[in-house]
Design a protein that fits this description.
Number of domains: 3
Number of helices: 2
Shape: elongated
Largest sheet: 8 strands, mixed
Helix content: under 10%
Strand content: over 45%
Distance between the termini: 81 Å
Radius of gyration: 35 Å
Length: 474
């Protein structure tokens, strides 16, 4: 038992000596020591920071205050190592200081102490200094001045010094052991929240909607509490899985006219199950800044515009009476993300906004849609809006309930084209159960197990009626 107590006492004395020695060997490192910084930003409001600094440390134990880090840092993710002398440097203890300085926090530290208050005497046109005891700084200040209690005071408060346990900016502090005599190139990496990026795309359609110029832009939003000067920037596109901690534990359109595509600013490559977009130059990412960087440019990509009328499964099991069912005619634009189509790079998820020139050559916004992460050689289909000059009506011309679970109905879908040119309209009917088309006026194709599609050509200022009879069994 005595041996055990001696060991505990010796350990305590050693730690006390180490901390005391460290307190006498305090080194501060600011962004001025920074040799390089790399910022990797994920889709999920998460970033990995790699900050490399040249730091000279006293030998033996000491304290290193690593300043100018993100205020939204996740301290448990910090990793520090010496790149040039890894065997000589080790961290014994780490603290994250985030009790940042403010007027209220400074006054909180002086509750029960004397401070000075400067008052301007406007009658004598001079300043007067009053000595006061700060009794409270909770929901207002209470002072004791000359044996009287003052609830607040209009004068300027003057403090003798800044308390040691308050800092002006977020700081990582380490108690370290340094067994070398030369300067270290320290690489400090950590994860931080409040840096995010998204992709936005501008698509400019040609006159007959058969091709388009496409530009992609990255919007980077930094609210992490730090500025990253002359940084290497990498973007990760993909859905990275993150563990959710339990509660108790813790613009607009850029430019319409595009010439031939320049060399891409981002170099794209596969990484694990994601994609990295590596900016091929340095950039400065300021705190509280939104930055836009061009991601890609494609000129003359082939696109196809499509008009679609979508039915509903609920049509086929009941009788409809009264007026015709008016239906929207949706407009889609689709293209293939392939090299042959001037594209062929993985497209990060984002919003695609479409524009087109009017008769006066003025560019107008025509619609937008969101895409998911899209690999190369996959189709992109955008819902742009609803057609103004194309009308669709549906009428049930017959309905028979053959049995409890067997329904038979006949339909007439009328489409009218008031445009200046001929168009093709697709009519998609979602069926269910055991279905059978008994008769049809126009040919159809089976899209999947429970959908059929009629494609019909409708001349300008013309009308087409598509009729069919279907049997549906539950």
């Amino acid at each position: 038992m005595m041996v055990k107590n001696c060991i505990v006492a010796a350990t305590f004395l050693f730690l006390s000596y180490t901390i005391a020695a460290a307190e006498n060997r305090v080194t501060e490192s600011s962004v001025d020591d920074q040799e390089s910084v790399e910022v990797t930003v994920y889709n999920s409001d998460l970033s990995l920071i790699k900050d490399m600094r040249h730091v000279t440390l006293p030998k033996e134990e000491g304290e290193l205050r690593f300043m100018d880090v993100a205020s939204h840092i996740m301290p448990e993710t910090v990793h520090v190592k010496s790149l040039n002398y890894p065997e000589a440097f080790s961290v014994l203890e780490q603290n994250y200081e985030y009790d940042l300085m403010s007027a209220d926090k400074l006054l909180d530290k002086y509750v029960g102490k004397k401070i000075k208050i400067v008052v301007w005497n406007k009658y004598q046109d001079r300043k007067e200094v009053v000595e006061a005891s700060l009794l409270s700084n909770n929901n207002g200040q209470i002072f004791k001045i000359n044996d009287e209690i003052f609830l607040g005071h209009p004068g300027i408060k003057i403090l003798p010094e800044i308390p040691e346990n308050l800092i002006a900016k977020p700081t990582l502090t380490w108690i370290y052991s340094n067994r070398g005599e030369k300067s270290h190139n320290l690489e400090v990496s950590y994860l931080t929240n409040n840096i995010s990026w998204k992709a936005d795309y501008v698509v400019v359609l040609n006159r007959n909607d058969s091709s388009a110029d496409l530009s992609g832009w990255v919007t980077l939003h930094n609210e992490s509490g730090a500025t990253y000067t002359n940084a290497t920037l990498k973007l990760i596109a993909g859905d990275v899985h993150r563990v959710k901690e339990r509660f108790e534990e813790r613009r607009g359109y850029m430019k319409a006219e595009m010439a031939m595509a320049d060399a891409p600013q981002f170099k794209e490559k596969a990484f694990f199950e994601y994609h990295i977009y590596d900016l091929q130059r340095k950039t400065t990412i300021k705190d509280n800044q939104k930055k836009q960087i061009r991601l890609l440019v494609a000129v003359g990509a082939t696109v196809k515009k499509e008009f679609l009328v979508n039915g509903n499964q609920g049509y086929f099991t009941r009788q409809y009476t009264g007026q015709n069912l008016k239906q929207s005619v949706n407009v889609y634009v689709e293209f293939k993300n392939s090299k042959d189509n001037s594209l062929g790079i993985p497209l990060p998820a984002g919003i695609m906004r479409l524009y087109k020139k009017d008769e006066e050559e003025s560019l107008q916004f025509v619609g937008e849609d969101r895409i998911g992460h899209t690999p190369k050689d996959e189709e992109v289909k955008l819902k742009i809006g609803e057609a103004f000059d194309v009308v669709a009506e549906r009428i049930q011309t017959d309905y028979v309930k053959r049995s409890t679970n067997l329904h038979e109905s006949e339909w007439e879908v009328t489409v009218r084209n008031h445009k200046e040119e001929d168009i093709t309209i697709g009519i998609i009917e979602p069926l269910f159960g055991n279905w059978e088309v008994i008769s049809n006026s126009h040919p159809y194709k089976k899209v999947d197990a429970f959908s059929i599609r009629f494609d019909t050509d409708v001349p300008k200022d013309g009308e087409v009626k598509v009729k069919y009879r279907v049997k549906v069994g539950l």
